Amino acid sequence: MQTPKQVLDRLKWDPKYKLADAEIWYWDRMASTGERVVRGSEILGVDMGFLVLQNARIPLYKIFRIVHHGEVLFERKKV
Question: The CATH number of the domain where 46 resides is what?
Fold first, then answer.
């Protein structure tokens, strides 16, 4: 099984994919549903185990699903 970092790298570097078209789902205790989604176009980078956005840094361990044009590239169940 690939890690979220490996899938994000594939979206960034593989010509078959486009990071901007991806949806990254992550667990967030502050959200009413306990989860949030961020568009790939909002991602500035991945640094030291964090997904870097304009106003936030999301730990990669919180990512539970990555989808690209309806295809689930990564998924794990909540423990």
Answer: 2.30.30
Token pair listed for 39: 């568009």
Number of domains in the chain: 1
Range of the domain at 48: 4-74
* Dist CA 58 CA 44 (whole Å): 12
Provide the CB-side half-sphere exposure for 30 (13 A, CA): 1
Single-letter amino acid code for the residue at 33: T
Q: Where are the beta strands (DSSP E) in the chain?
A: 22-27, 35-39, 43-47, 50-53, 57-59, 63-68, 71-75
Give the Cα separation of 59 and 72 in Å (integer).
20
Query: pLDDT, tens digit, for every residue of 34-58?
Result: 999 999 999 999 999 999 999 999 9
DSSP assignment, residue 65? E
Tell me the pTM: 0.91
